[in-house]
Specification:
The chain is of the alpha/beta class and 483 residues long. The strands form three sheets. Strands 7-10-9-8-11-12-13 form a seven-stranded mixed β-sheet, sandwiched between helices. A six-stranded parallel β-sheet has the order 3-2-1-4-5-6. Strands 14-15 form a two-stranded antiparallel ribbon. The protein has 16 helices and 15 strands. About 20% of the residues have low confidence.
Length: 483
């Protein structure tokens, strides 16, 4: 493997791929990272409206983009041994997927990944060599010499992750997007905000339908070849109709039934207060009967909290007791209904927050089964308060105010992204700590689980989060009054 070379000083001069190029974007990532990459797809589609634009992602993340108008085909591949790559069936499907990708003769492949770890560099280099596109483009941190178009990687946080993806797209001629177009939005996923608000409650009850949807995520998507008159239709029997890995995307991503979580908990529930001891959560709920939804205070109807942080790093979780304190205070000030969002495997954690409030009528847990159901919930909320995780990014894409709580991870790289509306989002973190962030810092992975004390989160005051929430709610109410 070649050694490190100097990082390029500037972005490469954009090239043109012709009127009908075949483009493959590679983003083998979690849901939040894939969502942040979607503006780059939109930039490519704007520049090359007749292009074939395909995506290679993980089976877990394919569900997110199943209805997107931006990608013609979605292929799935899991190169993580921990996700079962070495199982014979998975190996066979991976070989078939790679063969199909190579047969597509792409004009360009965009590698939307940092080249941080030696194993990852070897994996990505081998992947590109196998697919054999005419041109390759990606980030170069000094180890990207195998790329044809090398976008300088200044390290995590030197640019936001959405900006890095846009820069790679611009290297192959994608149009620079205006600030109000640079952020992810629900339309990128094929979801209309008004449709999402009134939809998916009934869909969420159709378990059989959801399993069929999960099965479909394992196949290449062809939106343009779909049946006429059907939004997001999928064409079967295309020249690249090759199945992805032979296991359900739901077993590895949002909406999964892993660990029996969705079997043990309904989609919406209110846990008994006895589930949590006073020693664990010592929160006093505001007195008096619950006010009608949206009555009093600032006129807020729903307040969404997300105390989880995904399975990749549990170190990103602000303590549940603090979320309960935030919920109690905002309820007293706004009379809003509290919705505690639970991702896969987070139902018990979300239940702790509600139980710590005494399980009042105005607080409940919501465990959406799919990203689309989650979006349907979020667009109804006046504000979202949560950790560095996929729901935070989806809330930002939904256009609602977002308070993002950061600890070990890098807020400059993964903070809520709304470049044209900075007043709509807020990051709360311990800026004064010289060790923060310790996860994804510079060109290093850093400490995935942070340090044992995690003072950046355990000592993050509730009042800081409340101050940010009050500011965003006040601005929202002022905007609504002007309208």
């Amino acid at each position: 493997m070649p050694g490190r070379h100097p990082i390029p000083e500037r972005d490469p001069a954009p090239i043109s791929l012709g009127p009908r190029p075949r483009i493959l974007a590679i983003k083998l990532s979690t849901l939040g990272d894939l969502l942040l990459a979607l503006p780059s797809f939109r930039a490519l589609r704007t520049r090359y409206p007749a292009a074939r634009l395909d995506l290679l992602t993980t089976a877990a993340s394919a569900l997110l983009i199943a209805d997107s108008p931006l990608a013609d085909h979605v292929y799935t591949l899991d190169l993580d041994v921990g996700h079962g790559m070495l199982r014979p069936g998975t190996l066979a499907c991976s070989a078939a997927t790679l063969a199909a990708l190579r047969a597509n003769h792409y004009d360009a492949a965009l590698l939307l990944h940092h080249l941080t770890l030696p194993g990852g560099r070897r994996k990505h280099r081998a992947l590109l060599a196998t697919i054999a596109p005419r041109i390759t483009a990606g980030l170069d941190n000094g180890y990207g010499g195998f790329l044809d178009l090398r976008v300088p990687d200044g390290g995590f946080g030197a640019r936001h992750e959405a900006e890095y993806a846009l820069a790679v797209a611009q290297a192959v001629g994608a149009v620079p997007l205006a600030s109000h177009e640079r952020a992810p939005r629900l339309a990128d996923l094929g979801w209309d905000a008004r449709e999402a608000e009134g939809a998916t409650a009934e869909d969420g009850e159709d378990a059989e339908g959801r399993e069929r949807e999960a099965e479909e995520t394992r196949r290449p998507r062809s939106k343009r070849g779909g049946r006429e008159g059907q939004s997001g239709a999928i064409a079967e029997g295309t020249e690249s109709d090759v199945e992805g890995p032979s296991y359900s995307a739901r077993a590895h991503g949002w909406g999964s039934r892993a660990r029996g979580s969705r079997e043990d908990y309904p989609r919406s529930f209110r846990p008994p207060a006895a589930l949590t001891t006073a020693a664990a959560l010592d929160v006093v709920s505001p007195p008096g009967p619950p006010a009608p939804e949206g009555e009093g205070g600032t006129g807020v109807s729903l307040i969404a909290l997300h105390p989880g942080g995904g399975e990749y790093s549990l170190a990103r979780r602000w303590p549940a007791v603090r979320y309960a304190e935030v919920a109690a205070t905002l309820r007293a000030e706004t009379h809003g209904q509290i919705v505690v969002v639970a991702g896969p495997g987070e139902e018990a954690l979300a239940g702790e927050v509600v139980a710590g409030l005494g399980a009042p009528e105005w607080a409940r847990v919501e465990a959406p089964a799919t990203p689309r159901e989650l979006a349907a919930l979020l667009v109804r909320c006046a504000i979202f308060i949560g950790n560095d995780a996929f729901p935070m990014h989806l809330a930002a894409a939904a256009g609602i105010p977002v308070v993002a709580i950061f600890g070990p991870s890098n807020a400059r790289a993964w903070g809520p992204y709304a470049p044209s509306e900075p007043e709509r989002v807020a990051v709360v973190r311990r800026d004064e700590l010289p060790c923060s962030p310790c996860f994804y810092r510079g060109h290093e992975l850093g400490l995935r689980e942070g340090c044992p004390p995690r003072m950046c989160l355990t000592n993050l005051p509730v009042e800081h989060v409340l101050a940010a929430a009050r500011r965003l709610l006040s601005a929202r109410c002022a905007t609504e009054q002007r309208v």
